[in-house]
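Quick one: structure tokens for this chain, please?
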Amino acid sequence: MTVPPLNSAARSALSAAAERNKHPILDTLRGLLPAHGRALEIASGTGQHVAWFAQHLPGWTWLPTDLRDTHFAELIAHVQAGLPEDLQERVEAPRLLDVRQESWPLERAHFDLIYCANLLHIAPWACCGALMRGAAQHLAPSGQLVIYGPYLEDDVPTADSNLTFDATLRARNPDWGLRRREAVEQEAQDAGLQLVARHALPANNLLLVWQAT
């Protein structure tokens, strides 16, 4: 199954959102992560997050990945602009990665952090289970899978903005849409991952933290 690309207006909106949310996400990651580690980023897009995190988490190195190489040049430019030349090696060259591959093409088997922002609602539902299974295979024993984005939740009122966003996504592509957190949690459990933290962040987004059971 091929995931259709976003149009230029949608990409611009995501880019603007990344600029806004990188600050609260970083603040939350600082409370979660040890001083040193190696991270795999899924669906890196323009690279705004990976460049920001590499700048402000000096003990971490990052491997950015994406389904397509459309934004690789922009990602590299963000890293070059955000980090002094001697620190740019903290971010490895971006790689192609489709989470639905049965075996992810990664030389290094395990990561201390696998990070994914704003993917599940603009990808087919099959990507959720595939992400969980791949993460379970590639997390270090004490590693964390961190997923950021908007969700629907049982017994939690959904913000009007998220309902509108969900309707817009489904009109654009019937395979897209906000995912129910409990359904995502079930996919994680099936893959051997347990939800250990739920952080409410601005603009009605959640940052969810998973670890191996």
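The beta strands are 37-42, 60-66, 95-96, 111-117, 139-149, 151-152, 179-180, 193-201, 205-212.
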